[in-house]
Amino acid sequence: MNIFKNISTYKSTKKSFVTIGTFDGVHLGHQKVIKDLVESAKKNNAKSVLLTFFPHPRMVLQKKTNIKLINTIDERIKLLENIGLDTLIIHEFSDEFANLTALEFVKTILVDKLNIAKLVIGYDHHFGKNREGNFDTLQQYGTEFNFELKEISQQDISNITVSSTKIRTAIELGEITKVNSYLGYNFMLTGTVVKGKNLGEKIGFPTANIHIQETYKLIPKTGAYIVKAIIANKTVFGMMNIGYRPTVSGKNQTIEINFFDFKTNLYNKIIQVEVLQFLRDEIKFNSIDDLKDQLKKDQQKSLEIIRGTFFESN
Ligand SMILES: Cc1cc2nc3c(=O)[nH]c(=O)nc-3n(C[C@H](O)[C@H](O)[C@H](O)COP(=O)(O)O)c2cc1C
Ligand SMILES: Nc1ncnc2c1ncn2[C@@H]1O[C@H](COP(=O)(O)OP(=O)(O)O)[C@@H](O)[C@H]1O
């Protein structure tokens, strides 16, 4: 997959089959649309092109918004790469871009840059300044500039019953099993391992504390979870805590993972964990010993669940 981070350096001579959108989550519904596009482009000897935007339009248009996303931009790129697209264009969604009229957008980007032959969009897609462009406008432009338009119907979309909004809500509620079934892959967190208070090792449960650079990444609700990671080409399971560590009077939110049967220095390494299942809420224990006893129970429970549910599917 060719990735272009700036549309001004892009120009296609080959005709393109294009889809446009944010695709946050790259969930089962998105995957279906993109796979259809890739297949039909192949059959017609055209390029499959996905045009996406970063930052998220809502981050630009509603400056005060605190929108959180299912994927960081790097996670989104990786997920899209796995589907088999020919070209991914990540266009900066700036104020200037938001001010293009629907006609300017179609003419200067879809026609002149992408050499568009077919456009696939969802039934409720709006675009251009003040969201003035819709399916009807696009149909007129399709006739004028000679491209085919395919609309994914409301029926098709609701049949999938998946939406980025539903997934975001489920993440906030810690409903990870539901999240993963909607995504069609396991929800992930990616970050750098940083130093903590060094208490973990002392109590027999060293934890890799991960720092996520992207402040717009949506973090699941506070609590303990079962996770999996690939470290040095090996699958390792573990238990993660997202929370404030009330037992040791922690102040900031931390995300920390104790990997099972594992003993490697991870400081400064970038790791990605797949979140598999919610275990329990965070508790304020009366003593470190009580916390330690609970961690032993969590480990036992996690290992049983991993053996029963997740081990085969590695
Ligand atoms: C799976 C797991 C669950 C945890 N649950 C709690 C909890 O319920 N309450 C709490 O105060 N701390 C909890 N902790 C956090 C510990 O307090 C933390 O690992 C310890 O303070 C070590 O911190 P450090 O990494 O700064 O050394 C949990 C940690 C893990 C790995
Ligand atoms: N099984 C393990 N799980 C997680 N981290 C481990 C493990 N074994 C060794 N480590 C290393 O130990 C560090 C965690 O030790 P810990 O005492 O909890 O320190 P900190 O408070 O800095 O996180 C991790 O960042 C990692 O480098």
Characterise this structure.
- Residues 182-307 form the Riboflavin kinase domain.
- Its EC number is 2.7.1.26, 2.7.7.2.
- It catalyses: FMN + ATP + H(+) = FAD + diphosphate; riboflavin + ATP = FMN + ADP + H(+).
- The protein is of the alpha/beta class.
- 34% of the residues lie in helices and 26% in strands.
- The protein has 2 domains: 2-162, 3-Layer(aba) Sandwich (Rossmann fold); 175-310, Beta Barrel (Elongation Factor Tu (Ef-tu), domain 3), CATH 2.40.30.
- The protein has 11 helices and 12 strands.
- The longest helix is centred in the C-terminal third of the chain and has 23 residues, at 288-310.
- The protein is elongated, with a radius of gyration of 23 Å.
- The mean pLDDT is 92.
- The site of flavin mononucleotide has 22 residues, from helix 10, strand 10, strand 11 and helix 11.
Task: Quickly count the helices.
Answer: 11
- What CATH architecture label of the largest domain applies? 3-Layer(aba) Sandwich
What portion of the residues fall into strands of 2 or more residues? 25-35%
Mean pLDDT, as a whole number? 92
Which regions contain 5 or more consecutive residues with pLDDT less than 50?
Answer: none
* Name of the top-level CATH class of the largest domain: Alpha Beta
Which homologous superfamily in CATH is the superfamily of the largest domain? HUPs
Written as H for each helix and E for each strand, in order along the chain, the element string is EEHEHHEHHEHEHHHEHEEEEEH
Q: What's the number of domains?
A: 2
Bound molecules: flavin mononucleotide, adenosine-5'-diphosphate
CATH topology of the largest domain: Rossmann fold
Q: Determine Rg (CA atoms, Å).
A: 23 Å
Query: Numbering strands along the chain, what is their spatial order in the largest sheet?
Result: 1-4-3-2-5-6
The profile of the biggest β sheet is: 6 strands, parallel
Helical percentage: 25-40%
C-alpha termini separation: 26 Å
Number-wise, the strands total 12
The computed structural class is alpha/beta
Q: What would the principal axes of the Cα set say about the shape? A: elongated
Catalytic activity: FMN + ATP + H(+) = FAD + diphosphate; riboflavin + ATP = FMN + ADP + H(+)
GO molecular function: ATP binding; FMN adenylyltransferase activity; riboflavin kinase activity
Keywords: ATP-binding, FAD, Flavoprotein, FMN, Kinase, Multifunctional enzyme, Nucleotide-binding, Nucleotidyltransferase, Transferase
Domain Riboflavin kinase: 182-307
